[in-house]
Amino acid sequence: MKPSIDLILGTALWAWTIPRSQAFKLLDDFYAAGFRWIDGATNYPINKNTEDFRAAEGILHEWINTHGVRDLKVLMKIGSVNNLYTPENNLSPSFIQIIYNEYLHLFGEQLAEIMIHWDNREQAEEIQATLEALDHLRQDGVRIGLSGIKHPAVYQQLNNSFNFDWDIQMKHNLVYSDYSRYAAFHGSPRFMAYGINAGGLKLPTASYRQDSSTAVRNVPTKKYQELVLKVASTLENYNATSSLAPLTRFNECSMVYTYYSPDIKGILIGPSKNEQLQSTLTFFQQLQAGQHQELYQQLAALSSND
Ligand SMILES: NC(=O)c1ccc[n+]([C@@H]2O[C@H](COP(=O)([O-])OP(=O)(O)OC[C@H]3O[C@@H](n4cnc5c(N)ncnc54)[C@H](OP(=O)(O)O)[C@@H]3O)[C@@H](O)[C@H]2O)c1
Predict the structure, then answer these.
(1) Ligand 1 center to 235 CA (angstroms)
(2) Mean pLDDT of all residues in 167-195
(3) Which of 15, 48, 114, 252 fits 55 for a cystine, CB–CB 3.0-4.6 Å?
(4) HEC-encoded secondary structure of the chain
(5) Considering the domain boundaries, does residue 150 fall inside one?
(6) CATH number assigned to the domain comprising residue 16
(7) Ligand 1 atom 45: residue of nearest CA
(8) Counting atoms of ligand 1 from 1, which one is nearest the CA of 11?
(9) pLDDT in tens, 238-281
């Protein structure tokens, strides 16, 4: 049987293309639908505007206080020291402890998980020190995870003496996947997929707005146009032969592809509008009911991922 998969609400565009009032509405609906996991990072939004450093987590904190919510599960990715989209970060034990205390102060018992956010290091001694710091957090009952790790095998090797049951965030979509880079961690459902729409791709029937995700993040939509056209044509054939309600969005294809990919534990969703959120949640129910397995095989055949 397929292990259960959860949805996690992403916050990367909050205080960027998604203003505070809209983020509040997304949280209202996501929470009302019974979902609890929220994904953040110290550097969200990564819009290179220093005034917005940590603004996304500020919105989340404000929403929690406004509504007196006590049962969210907040996942924070740590290490970044700015939101300039540079690899500059700090994973020293003292910094990890400082930022952990900061998030405990902000989110209290709702702080459910801490992830290392971007690590290009290869030196075992330095990574060992980071793991020792994370071990203290684990003893507090916080889950520990990894994201953007350049040398995952070093982490895996050192883990022999720690036994972390890592969660891993990986970019995973029809045009690109980090799954093979994390080969050392394959074999159990520990992967949370992000960027499932490759940053906001749409079918040719939809159009990109001026403030669309692809525009602000410089996603090369033209480069992906061929794949998008193939997805559209696959969908047309699938809809014509399926007795289920027709699929109309690139996001639905992305959800199918991610849901049935190996070792998936969670799907990070990044809706910018409540209508997108609603469509995602409704479609997720269909996936949980076992629909669209066949489409996965067809989509996987289009993707160039290993
Ligand atoms: N670990 C990491 O390093 C990392 C990196 C990136 C992201 N993340 C996390 O993953 C979350 C999601 O990532 P992402 O924003 O890159 O995801 P994405 O799904 O690739 O892109 C999100 C965009 O897709 C479009 N979209 C989403 N749902 C839709 C729907 N139902 N119908 C139509 N369009 C839809 C929207 O575009 P428009 O707004 O243009 O309509 C939305 O802004 C982030 O918020 C963040 O929390 C983690």
Answers:
(1) 21
(2) 97
(3) 15
(4) CCCCCEEEEECCCECCCECHHHHHHHHHHHHHCCCCEEEEECCCCCCCCHHHCCHHHHHHHHHHHHHCCCCCEEEEEECECCCCCCCCECCCHHHHHHHHHHHHHHHHHHEEEEEEEEECCCCHHHHHHHHHHHHHHHHCCCEEEEEEECCHHHHHHHHHHCCCCCEEEEEECCCCECHHHHHHHCCCCCEEEECCCCCCCCCCCCCCCCCCHHHHCCCCCCCCHHHHHHHHHHHHHHHHHCCCCCCCCHHHHHHHHHHCCCCEEEEEECCCCHHHHHHHHHHHHHHHCCCCHHHHHHHHHHCCCC
(5) yes
(6) 3.20.20.100
(7) 10
(8) 45
(9) 999 999 999 999 999 999 999 999 999 999 999 999 999 999 99
Q: Please count the structural domains in the chain.
A: 1
Please report whether residue 77 resides in a domain: yes
Confirm whether 288 is domain-assigned: no
- The domain of 107 spans 6-165
Ligand 1 within 6 A of CB of 80: no
Does residue 305 have a pLDDT over 90? no
Q: What's the whole-model pTM score?
A: 0.97
Q: Within a domain: residue 23?
A: yes
